[in-house]
Amino acid sequence: MPVKTAQSLIEEFVRAVRPPQGCAIVLTEIVPSPEFDFNWLASAGHMSAAVIARYDSALLDLKRKNRRINWDGVTDMDSEGVSRRIARYSSEVK
Question: What pLDDT shows up at residue 54?
């Protein structure tokens, strides 16, 4: 199975979650470790219980299928300037 790009994964995630207007889904690059063999973390702002349920379900599914993603082409950095990050709002995803 090919490795998904961060751009592809976040768009799939946003389509599944359908966060409210003004609430972004964010993926942040991390260094995998023996205890946590993923190279990405997800986060989001405040959401209703129904949206949180979709977020949790989508996150579990995406983590199961995509332990690692390809960060090539992502140039935005987190606030510390250490890790790449990508954010999308529902209005930015078709």
Answer: 97
